[in-house]
C-alpha cells in the first residue's frame, strides 16, 4: 500500500466557525490519523492570528497540534517582506496580525508612506484604510502583499465577504499595479514546500472546502485533491468551476472510510 501524506485545511474542514469550534467528528478523525500512523499537517491560510496563538486557541477547543503540524502563511510573510527590503508597512488586517509584524521587527504605521501594504482578513476595514492603501500603492509605489489569495470567505452567519486575494486584486486594478501579486498561502509552491518539509510518503492529498483557492492549484502541481462539502462550497460549485477533484466527501467520517481504501 502506498504511503499517504495528508494536508488538511482548517476552516470548513476541521473547524466550523470563526470561534474554531470543531465538527463532531474532528477529534475522532485526528485520533484515527495518529493511530494509523498517517502523517499529516494542518495547512491554513488564516491571517487573523500568529501560528502560536492559533495553536493555543485550537487547544482550548480540544484540537491539540504540535508546532510543526500547523503551517500558515505567517510563517512565510516576515521572510518574504525582508527579502523585498520592506520595513515600513500599512496593514489591512486584524490587530493580532499588526502586533505579530511589530514583534517581527517591522514598523506598522497608519499613513501612506510605506514600503508595502500587507493585506489579511480585516473585519474593521473602512474608507480610511482603503484610501491609505490606494494612496500608498498609487503615490508611493508600495508593494501589494496579501497574506493569501483567498477569494471569498464565509462568515458564521452564512453570508460571504471578499478574501485577502480579492482585496489585493481590487487594489492592483485601481492603481494600475503591474507587478505580480505574491501568494504566500496554499497552494503556492513555497507554501507547499514548507508544508511537506520533513515528511515522507508516496502520495500527497490536500483536503479542502475551497476549490478555487486551494484545490485547483494543488491539482496542477500533481497533488491529489479531496473536496469536502462541510465548508463554504457545495457540490454544485464543482460544475460552475468546471473542476473535478480526485475525491468528494461530505464529512471527516466519510473521509476516514475513504482513507482506509487508498
TrEMBL record:
One term under GO cellular component: cytoplasm
Pfam short name (any one): Hydrolase_6
InterPro entries the record matches: HAD-like_sf (IPR036412), HAD-SF_hydro_IIA (IPR006357), HAD_sf (IPR023214)
Protein name (database record): HAD-superfamily hydrolase, subfamily IIA
GO function terms (MF aspect): phosphatase activity
Keyword terms of this UniProt record: Hydrolase
Lineage top rank: taxon: Bacteria
Lineage: Bacteria, Pseudomonadati, Aquificota, Aquificia, Aquificales
Amino acid at each position: 500500500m502506498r504511503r499517504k501524506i495528508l494536508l488538511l485545511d482548517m476552516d470548513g474542514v476541521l473547524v466550523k466557525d470563526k470561534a474554531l469550534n470543531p465538527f463532531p467528528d474532528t477529534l475522532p478523525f485526528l485520533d484515527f490519523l495518529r493511530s494509523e500512523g498517517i502523517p499529516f499537517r494542518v495547512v491554513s491560510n488564516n491571517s487573523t492570528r500568529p501560528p502560536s496563538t492559533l495553536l493555543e486557541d485550537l487547544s482550548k477547543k480540544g484540537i491539540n497540534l504540535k508546532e510543526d503540524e500547523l503551517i500558515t502563511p505567517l510563517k512565510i510573510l516576515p521572510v518574504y517582506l525582508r527579502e523585498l527590503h520592506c520595513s515600513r508597512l500599512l496593514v489591512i488586517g486584524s490587530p493580532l496580525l499588526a502586533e505579530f509584524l511589530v514583534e517581527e521587527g517591522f514598523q506598522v504605521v497608519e499613513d501612506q508612506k510605506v514600503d508595502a501594504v500587507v493585506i489579511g482578513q480585516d473585519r474593521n476595514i473602512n474608507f480610511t484604510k482603503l484610501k491609505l492603501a490606494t494612496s500608498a500603492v498609487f503615490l508611493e509605489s508600495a508593494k501589494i502583499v496579501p497574506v493569501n489569495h483567498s477569494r471569498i470567505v464565509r462568515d458564521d452567519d452564512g453570508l460571504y465577504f471578499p478574501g485577502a486575494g480579492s482585496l489585493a486584486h481590487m487594489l492592483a486594478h485601481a492603481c494600475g499595479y503591474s507587478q505580480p501579486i505574491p501568494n504566500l498561502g496554499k497552494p503556492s509552491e513555497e507554501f507547499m514546500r514548507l508544508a511537506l518539509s520533513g515528511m515522507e510518503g508516496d502520495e500527497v492529498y490536500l483536503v479542502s472546502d475551497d476549490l478555487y483557492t486551494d484545490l485547483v492549484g494543488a491539482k496542477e502541481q500533481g497533488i491529489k485533491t479531496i473536496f469536502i462539502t462541510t465548508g463554504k462550497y457545495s457540490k454544485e460549485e464543482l460544475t460552475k468551476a468546471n473542476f473535478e477533484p480526485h475525491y468528494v466527501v461530505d464529512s471527516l467520517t466519510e473521509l476516514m472510510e475513504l482513507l482506509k481504501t487508498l
